[in-house]
């Protein structure tokens, strides 16, 4: 299993907890007290410790689900070399999501693979590591967003507080652009008629619920809450694909002179995206757990 530099003794700071994660030990609570005080600011070492704890919690969730994370992507002079050497784990990766969220993830995959979703998945394609890295990072953010909005949707459905029927509105035009991912393109919304069948009292699916949210709420749900999580996404992506060599040309355009090309099957690409979405899901859970203990995001 790959690592982006988590300290070897970080796992020692975790002890069993009934909440599904391992609870921070007394040593980490002592460390956390140095930056959780309202009048103090997080130090560099404290921020690094937070990242490591969150990462350990994420890796723990993958281990609990018996999911092997994809190793570092490397190139090879062999044109038949493939990065997707792990066994198919699609079922395990899909099982961590609710049926409603899984429906939207399938739409996300369809958007990426197009008509190839129903075609031969063992076809090898050549794609740059930079593009793969962007796709991976964007899919982490999508998984983070999806888990966040799905929790609210499931709660409102359980409490029977869902609005009778969401009215179709063009809310995406009001969202601020994100340099890494396009929320409108990733959230594939069908017409409400597909969800209701003429019965306005019937509970609708998650994809229509997303369409019901106002622009401000949707923007907030699509935003990563902490700098530590943003840094972790960057490090996780770089651990898998390496640090990209990006240069600014004289005309202001971006150049990637050393971008490498790798071969990957559509099946491997599917596994890559599903792992990233799962990572984003676990990131939301781990970030929330650590925040509930130390309130580091209010620092």
TrEMBL record:
Provenance organism: Musa troglodytarum (fe'i banana)
UniProt-listed InterPro entries: At3g17800-like (IPR038925), DUF760 (IPR008479)
Protein name listed in UniProt: UV-B-induced protein
A Pfam family assignment: DUF760
């Amino acid at each position: 299993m790959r690592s982006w530099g988590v300290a070897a003794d970080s796992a020692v700071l975790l002890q069993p907890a009934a909440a599904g994660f391992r609870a921070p030990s007394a040593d980490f609570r002592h460390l956390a007290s140095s930056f959780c005080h309202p009048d103090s600011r997080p130090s560099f070492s404290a921020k690094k410790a937070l990242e490591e704890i969150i990462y350990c919690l994420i890796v723990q969730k993958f281990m609990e689900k018996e999911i092997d994370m994809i190793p570092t992507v490397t190139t090879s002079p062999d044109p038949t070399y493939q990065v997707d050497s792990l066994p198919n784990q699609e079922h395990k990766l899909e099982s961590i999501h609710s049926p409603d969220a899984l429906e939207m993830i399938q739409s996300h995959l369809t958007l990426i693979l197009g008509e190839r979703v129903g075609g031969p998945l063992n076809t090898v394609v050549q794609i740059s590591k930079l593009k793969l890295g962007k796709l991976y990072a964007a899919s982490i953010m999508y998984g983070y967003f999806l888990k966040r909005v799905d929790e609210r949707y499931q709660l409102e459905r359980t409490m029977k507080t869902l609005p009778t029927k969401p009215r179709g509105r063009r809310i995406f035009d009001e969202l601020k652009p994100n340099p890494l991912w396009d929320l409108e393109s990733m959230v594939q919304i069908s017409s409400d008629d597909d969800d209701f069948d003429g019965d306005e009292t019937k509970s609708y699916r998650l994809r229509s619920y997303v369409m019901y949210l106002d622009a401000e709420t949707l923007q907030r749900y699509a935003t990563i809450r902490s700098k530590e999580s943003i840094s972790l996404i960057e490090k996780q992506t770089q651990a898998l694909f390496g640090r990209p060599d990006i240069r600014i040309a004289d005309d202001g355009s971006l150049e990637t002179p050393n971008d490498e090309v790798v071969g990957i099957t559509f099946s491997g690409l599917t596994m890559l995206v599903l792992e990233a979405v799962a990572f984003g899901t676990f990131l939301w859970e781990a970030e929330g757990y650590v925040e509930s203990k130390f309130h580091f995001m209010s620092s």
